[in-house]
Amino acid sequence: MKGFERKNQLLSLCGLNCGLCPMFLGNYCGGCGNGNQSCRIAKCSLEHGKMEYCYECKQYPCEKYQHIDEYDSFITHRRQKADLERAQRIGIEQYNLEQQEKLQILSRLLSNYNDGRRKNFFCVVVNLLELSELQEAIEQIQSNDELSALPFEAQCSYVAEVFQKIADRRHIKLKLIRKK
User: Fold this and answer.
1) Which residues have C-beta within 8 Å of that of residue 47, sequence separation ≥ 6?
2) 147 close to 162: Cβ distance less than 8 angstroms
3) Cα–Cα distance between 152 and 3 in angstroms, integer?
């Protein structure tokens, strides 16, 4: 969108974790404000003085955030408000450090356990689970001495099961919720 640019490509204006998105990781998206299609929230930001994050606006959360978490597109929307609130609470610098750690975990998962069918799954996992839960899963995966002896497909399935069990504890669905 003309006139709208972003320095932080890890967290968007509206609270999407762009740095953990399969479109961004695959270089199909330049991120918020880098030549992408028109965005009503970016337009709103320009109209309200070029807010860096929606939480900076006196009207946040506005009507644009009603129903925003009811369905997903290529990236999960379910944590948008929660992530914006967390970034506001702990500060964007600390939030970005956590996102960078999540990005390292995602990169490791994609490099070692993506059998060609798990990129979106791992992106959703890293978006929806807390950093401590991701670290717990990684510890469990690393402590499995028999994992490397398994066929690659079985390794990938095991890793997915580890994350699924953690998500099940919190009743988190590790699938995108499509608009009907």
Assistant:
1) none
2) no
3) 47
As separate numbers, helices (DSSP H) first and strands (DSSP E) second, the chain gives 7, 0
- Checking 167-176 for CB contacts under 8 A at 24+ apart, the result is 167/125, 167/128, 167/129, 170/133, 172/128, 172/129, 174/121, 174/124, 174/125, 174/128, 175/124, 176/72, 176/73, 176/74, 176/76, 176/120, 176/124
Dihedral (CA of 53, 59, 61, 64) sign: negative
pLDDT value, residue 92? 95
Is the Cβ–Cβ distance between 141 and 38 less than 8 Å?
no
Query: How many residues can be counted in the chain?
Result: 180
Q: What's the CA gap between 79 and 94, in Å, rounded?
A: 17
Summarised one tens digit per residue, pLDDT across range 102-151 is 999 999 999 999 999 999 999 999 999 999 999 999 999 999 999 999 99
Q: Please, are residues 45 and 38 in contact by the beta-carbon 8 Å criterion?
A: no
pTM of the model: 0.89
